Amino acid sequence: MPQIKSAIKRVKTQAVANERNAAQLSTMRTAVKKFKAAQAAGADNASELHVAAVRELDKAASKGLIHKNKANRDKSRLAKLAK
């Protein structure tokens, strides 16, 4: 455990940021999985889930959780599946 006051604060803020980032990534992955499962099953709401998955990918890229090129690549692959 750090002794310096600023280092102690840094550990606390890193822990909070780590939780927030992990939750955001989990939400993104879940949205993508839901869309893929719905598309494979031929569900009616697949287009809605596609929009939700793309939105989550964009949010993750804007927050710096994933690279923008990865987000665009994943969106392109999801769009291929949606056709």
Verbal overview:
GO terms for molecular function: small ribosomal subunit rRNA binding; structural constituent of ribosome. Pfam families: Ribosomal_S20p. One of its GO terms (cellular component) is cytosol. Keywords: Ribonucleoprotein, Ribosomal protein, RNA-binding, rRNA-binding. This is Small ribosomal subunit protein bS20. This protein has 83 residues and is mostly helical. The protein has one domain (3-80): Methane Monooxygenase Hydroxylase, Chain G, domain 1 (Up-down Bundle). 83% of the residues lie in helices and 0% in strands. The chain is built from 3 helices and no strands. It has helices spanning 5-41, 46-62, 68-82. α2 packs antiparallel against α3. The termini are far apart. The model has no long low-confidence stretch (mean pLDDT 96).
What's the layout of helices and strands?
Elements: H1 5-41, H2 46-62, H3 68-82
Helix pairs in contact: 1-2, 2-3
GO cellular component, one term: cytosol
Keywords: Ribonucleoprotein, Ribosomal protein, RNA-binding, rRNA-binding
InterPro entries: Ribosomal_bS20, Ribosomal_bS20_sf
